[in-house]
Here is the input.
Amino acid sequence: MTQDPSRAVVLLGGGGHALVVADAVTEGAEILGYFDDDPRAVLGECTGLVRLGTLAEFPDASGPHVHLAIGNLAVRASLIGRLTAHQTVTIRHATAVLSASAELGRDVFVGPQAVVHTGARVGDHCIVNTGAIIEHECVLGENVHVAPGAVLGGRVSVGPGTLVGLGSRVLPGIRIGAGCVVGAGAVVIRDVPDGGRVVGVPARTIG
Here is the structure.
Protein backbone atom coordinates (compact mmCIF):
# COMPACT_ATOMS: atom_id res chain seq x y z
CA MET A 1 0.00 0.00 0.00
CA THR A 2 1.29 3.46 -0.92
CA GLN A 3 1.71 5.57 2.19
CA ASP A 4 0.83 9.20 2.79
CA PRO A 5 3.35 11.62 1.23
CA SER A 6 6.37 12.48 3.38
CA ARG A 7 8.06 14.54 0.70
CA ALA A 8 7.29 17.23 -1.87
CA VAL A 9 4.15 16.64 -3.95
CA VAL A 10 2.50 18.42 -6.88
CA LEU A 11 -1.29 18.41 -7.20
CA LEU A 12 -2.89 17.96 -10.60
CA GLY A 13 -5.98 20.16 -10.21
CA GLY A 14 -6.84 23.32 -8.32
CA GLY A 15 -10.60 23.16 -7.74
CA GLY A 16 -12.71 22.24 -4.73
CA HIS A 17 -11.52 18.64 -4.57
CA ALA A 18 -7.89 19.83 -4.64
CA LEU A 19 -8.69 22.07 -1.68
CA VAL A 20 -9.90 19.03 0.29
CA VAL A 21 -6.84 17.01 -0.76
CA ALA A 22 -4.46 19.80 0.28
CA ASP A 23 -6.11 19.92 3.70
CA ALA A 24 -5.48 16.18 4.12
CA VAL A 25 -1.76 16.24 3.28
CA THR A 26 0.12 15.14 6.39
CA GLU A 27 2.55 17.22 8.40
CA GLY A 28 6.06 17.07 7.04
CA ALA A 29 4.89 16.95 3.43
CA GLU A 30 5.25 19.98 1.20
CA ILE A 31 2.91 20.86 -1.66
CA LEU A 32 5.08 22.47 -4.31
CA GLY A 33 2.10 23.81 -6.24
CA TYR A 34 -0.58 22.69 -8.66
CA PHE A 35 -1.54 22.54 -12.33
CA ASP A 36 -4.97 23.81 -13.35
CA ASP A 37 -6.52 25.55 -16.36
CA ASP A 38 -8.14 28.25 -14.21
CA PRO A 39 -5.66 31.02 -13.35
CA ARG A 40 -7.87 31.91 -10.36
CA ALA A 41 -8.44 28.35 -9.14
CA VAL A 42 -9.91 28.11 -5.65
CA LEU A 43 -6.87 26.23 -4.33
CA GLY A 44 -4.58 29.14 -5.03
CA GLU A 45 -7.11 31.71 -3.83
CA CYS A 46 -7.65 29.94 -0.50
CA THR A 47 -4.16 28.64 0.29
CA GLY A 48 -1.70 30.83 -1.59
CA LEU A 49 -0.24 27.75 -3.30
CA VAL A 50 1.47 28.46 -6.61
CA ARG A 51 -0.16 27.57 -9.93
CA LEU A 52 2.60 25.90 -11.95
CA GLY A 53 0.77 25.90 -15.28
CA THR A 54 -2.23 24.54 -17.15
CA LEU A 55 -3.15 20.87 -17.29
CA ALA A 56 -1.70 20.74 -20.80
CA GLU A 57 1.59 22.07 -19.43
CA PHE A 58 1.89 19.29 -16.86
CA PRO A 59 5.14 17.52 -17.85
CA ASP A 60 5.01 13.94 -19.11
CA ALA A 61 8.53 13.28 -17.81
CA SER A 62 9.09 12.04 -14.28
CA GLY A 63 9.43 14.73 -11.64
CA PRO A 64 8.16 15.34 -8.11
CA HIS A 65 5.54 13.06 -6.59
CA VAL A 66 2.07 13.76 -8.01
CA HIS A 67 -1.52 13.35 -6.81
CA LEU A 68 -4.50 13.64 -9.16
CA ALA A 69 -6.70 16.13 -7.25
CA ILE A 70 -9.65 16.50 -9.64
CA GLY A 71 -13.11 15.19 -8.77
CA ASN A 72 -14.59 14.88 -12.27
CA LEU A 73 -14.15 11.28 -13.46
CA ALA A 74 -14.03 12.09 -17.17
CA VAL A 75 -11.27 14.65 -16.67
CA ARG A 76 -9.43 12.25 -14.38
CA ALA A 77 -9.63 9.50 -17.00
CA SER A 78 -8.13 11.80 -19.63
CA LEU A 79 -5.11 12.49 -17.40
CA ILE A 80 -4.38 9.07 -15.90
CA GLY A 81 -2.22 7.95 -18.83
CA ARG A 82 0.05 10.92 -18.29
CA LEU A 83 0.85 9.77 -14.75
CA THR A 84 2.60 6.58 -15.89
CA ALA A 85 6.09 8.10 -15.77
CA HIS A 86 5.47 9.82 -12.44
CA GLN A 87 5.73 8.69 -8.84
CA THR A 88 2.24 9.10 -7.39
CA VAL A 89 1.16 9.27 -3.77
CA THR A 90 -1.91 8.08 -1.92
CA ILE A 91 -3.25 10.67 0.50
CA ARG A 92 -5.53 9.90 3.41
CA HIS A 93 -6.90 12.32 5.96
CA ALA A 94 -5.77 11.89 9.55
CA THR A 95 -9.35 11.07 10.63
CA ALA A 96 -9.88 8.34 8.01
CA VAL A 97 -10.08 4.75 9.29
CA LEU A 98 -8.20 2.18 7.25
CA SER A 99 -8.13 -1.52 8.16
CA ALA A 100 -4.70 -3.13 8.30
CA SER A 101 -5.91 -5.69 5.76
CA ALA A 102 -7.34 -3.16 3.30
CA GLU A 103 -5.41 -2.53 0.08
CA LEU A 104 -5.12 0.85 -1.62
CA GLY A 105 -3.78 1.29 -5.13
CA ARG A 106 -1.69 4.15 -6.53
CA ASP A 107 -2.84 7.75 -6.29
CA VAL A 108 -5.86 7.09 -4.05
CA PHE A 109 -7.53 9.74 -1.87
CA VAL A 110 -9.29 8.75 1.38
CA GLY A 111 -11.13 11.72 2.87
CA PRO A 112 -12.01 12.88 6.38
CA GLN A 113 -13.88 10.30 8.49
CA ALA A 114 -14.02 7.83 5.60
CA VAL A 115 -13.75 4.11 6.44
CA VAL A 116 -12.13 1.37 4.37
CA HIS A 117 -12.83 -1.91 6.11
CA THR A 118 -11.33 -5.37 6.40
CA GLY A 119 -10.19 -6.98 3.17
CA ALA A 120 -11.43 -4.15 0.95
CA ARG A 121 -9.44 -3.41 -2.22
CA VAL A 122 -9.43 0.08 -3.70
CA GLY A 123 -8.01 0.42 -7.21
CA ASP A 124 -5.63 3.02 -8.61
CA HIS A 125 -6.75 6.66 -8.84
CA CYS A 126 -9.88 6.21 -6.71
CA ILE A 127 -11.56 8.75 -4.43
CA VAL A 128 -13.16 7.60 -1.18
CA ASN A 129 -14.62 10.92 -0.17
CA THR A 130 -15.64 12.50 3.14
CA GLY A 131 -17.50 10.11 5.43
CA ALA A 132 -17.84 7.37 2.82
CA ILE A 133 -17.83 3.76 4.07
CA ILE A 134 -16.31 0.90 2.10
CA GLU A 135 -17.29 -2.23 4.00
CA HIS A 136 -15.48 -5.57 4.25
CA GLU A 137 -14.24 -7.28 1.07
CA CYS A 138 -15.49 -4.62 -1.32
CA VAL A 139 -13.55 -4.23 -4.58
CA LEU A 140 -13.27 -0.89 -6.41
CA GLY A 141 -11.86 -0.74 -9.93
CA GLU A 142 -9.65 2.05 -11.27
CA ASN A 143 -10.86 5.67 -11.12
CA VAL A 144 -13.97 5.10 -9.00
CA HIS A 145 -15.38 8.04 -7.02
CA VAL A 146 -17.35 7.15 -3.89
CA ALA A 147 -18.92 10.48 -2.99
CA PRO A 148 -19.34 11.93 0.52
CA GLY A 149 -21.55 9.88 2.81
CA ALA A 150 -22.02 6.95 0.43
CA VAL A 151 -22.00 3.44 1.92
CA LEU A 152 -21.02 0.21 0.18
CA GLY A 153 -22.15 -2.89 2.09
CA GLY A 154 -19.90 -5.93 2.37
CA ARG A 155 -18.58 -7.65 -0.79
CA VAL A 156 -19.81 -4.95 -3.17
CA SER A 157 -17.84 -4.67 -6.42
CA VAL A 158 -17.67 -1.45 -8.44
CA GLY A 159 -16.31 -1.30 -11.99
CA PRO A 160 -13.81 1.28 -13.24
CA GLY A 161 -14.88 4.83 -13.97
CA THR A 162 -18.03 4.68 -11.84
CA LEU A 163 -19.49 7.43 -9.63
CA VAL A 164 -21.30 6.30 -6.47
CA GLY A 165 -23.27 9.43 -5.60
CA LEU A 166 -23.62 11.53 -2.49
CA GLY A 167 -25.29 9.69 0.39
CA SER A 168 -26.20 6.62 -1.66
CA ARG A 169 -26.42 3.10 -0.25
CA VAL A 170 -25.41 -0.13 -2.00
CA LEU A 171 -26.61 -3.37 -0.41
CA PRO A 172 -24.14 -6.17 0.36
CA GLY A 173 -23.02 -8.38 -2.51
CA ILE A 174 -24.19 -6.03 -5.29
CA ARG A 175 -22.17 -5.71 -8.51
CA ILE A 176 -21.98 -2.30 -10.19
CA GLY A 177 -20.44 -2.29 -13.65
CA ALA A 178 -17.95 0.01 -15.35
CA GLY A 179 -18.81 3.60 -16.23
CA CYS A 180 -21.95 3.71 -14.09
CA VAL A 181 -23.59 6.54 -12.18
CA VAL A 182 -25.42 5.91 -8.92
CA GLY A 183 -27.51 8.98 -8.16
CA ALA A 184 -27.36 10.89 -4.90
CA GLY A 185 -29.39 9.20 -2.16
CA ALA A 186 -30.12 6.09 -4.22
CA VAL A 187 -30.50 2.70 -2.56
CA VAL A 188 -29.13 0.01 -4.87
CA ILE A 189 -30.74 -3.39 -4.27
CA ARG A 190 -29.83 -5.17 -7.53
CA ASP A 191 -26.83 -5.38 -9.85
CA VAL A 192 -26.16 -2.50 -12.27
CA PRO A 193 -24.77 -3.35 -15.76
CA ASP A 194 -21.91 -1.48 -17.42
CA GLY A 195 -22.89 2.09 -18.27
CA GLY A 196 -26.01 1.99 -16.10
CA ARG A 197 -27.46 5.11 -14.50
CA VAL A 198 -29.66 4.48 -11.46
CA VAL A 199 -31.59 6.79 -9.14
CA GLY A 200 -34.19 6.56 -6.40
CA VAL A 201 -35.28 4.32 -3.54
CA PRO A 202 -35.09 1.55 -4.50
CA ALA A 203 -32.76 2.48 -7.35
CA ARG A 204 -34.17 2.22 -10.89
CA THR A 205 -32.48 2.62 -14.26
CA ILE A 206 -32.87 5.89 -16.19
CA GLY A 207 -31.66 7.01 -19.62
Observations:
- The chain is about 10% helix and 30% strand.
- The longest strand covers residues 30-35.
- The mean pLDDT is 93.
